[in-house]
Specification:
single chain, 230 residues, alpha/beta, Spore Coat Polysaccharide Biosynthesis Protein SpsA, Chain A, seven-stranded mixed beta sheet, two-stranded antiparallel sheet, 7 helices
Length: 230
């Protein structure tokens, strides 16, 4: 079986305050390097495609030259939105690939075993995503005031990677280039097309680096993992 991961590293980093968020140092290494390590450590991922922005292209090339990630098969340019960047990455997936995963480079703490579980679920069900059950009490707010409390028993926080059979991902990528720009993940495209999406249980340690303080949390998680492994 062949499974190719498209790692989207073409964000603008507006909320982070730095357009090169994926190159921010995390325990002395760029955030992107940790994401690459995770997919390189996956036993089922056979190739990696990185989608980059013009302002990070040279730095990513230098990172790859200094690293040991032979699974990287292509580096492609991103688009105006995340949807277009994803579509550009999917377009570079080699023919004959069976499963395509899309992963946000800003989730550097994903575990190789969770990546493999996502691939296996996509093989069985056609599509799968990592997700974690919502643990906070959720409020719907109108004009700054609570309107109601939402039942969280059926609510899950979507994460990446999100994996689909290649033929389905190709159709989803086509839709991504024409849909409104507020679609934030591949599962939303699958829902529109009626493709089933299986949940693979993850946890909150697969966090997304959104604000600078998230790096401190990520460092604490990585140190805890290192201590547990030693």
């Amino acid at each position: 079986m062949s499974a190719v991961a498209v790692i989207v590293a073409a964000g603008t980093g507006e909320r982070f305050g730095n357009a090169a968020k994926v190159l921010a140092p995390l325990l002395g290494r760029p955030v992107l390097a940790w994401s690459l390590d995770a997919f390189a450590g996956s036993s089922l991922t056979t190739g990696i495609i990185i989608v980059v922005s013009p302002h990070t292209e040279a730095d990513v090339a230098n990172l790859l030259a200094a690293g040991t990630w032979p699974q990287v098969i292509a580096v492609v340019a991103g688009g105006e939105t995340r949807q277009h960047s994803m579509a550009n990455g999917v377009a570079a997936v080699p023919e004959g690939t069976e499963i395509v995963l899309v992963h946000d480079a800003a989730r550097p703490l994903v575990l190789p075993e969770d990546i493999d579980a996502c691939i296996e679920a996509a093989v069985e069900h056609g599509g799968a995503i990592l997700a974690a059950p919502v643990i906070d009490t959720i409020k719907r707010v109108e004009h700054g005031r609570i309107a109601e409390t939402i039942d969280r028993s059926m609510l899950w926080g979507a994460q990446t990677p999100q994996a689909f059979r290649a033929d389905r991902m190709g159709i989803m990528a086509e839709l991504a280039t024409t849909a409104e720009p507020n679609i934030t993940d591949e599962a939303s495209l699958a829902e529109r097309l009626g493709f089933p999406v299986q949940i693979v249980v993850s946890d909150s340690t697969n966090l997304k680096i959104t604000h600078p303080h998230d790096l401190l949390i990520a460092e604490a998680i990585l140190r805890a993992r290192e201590e547990k492994a030693s």
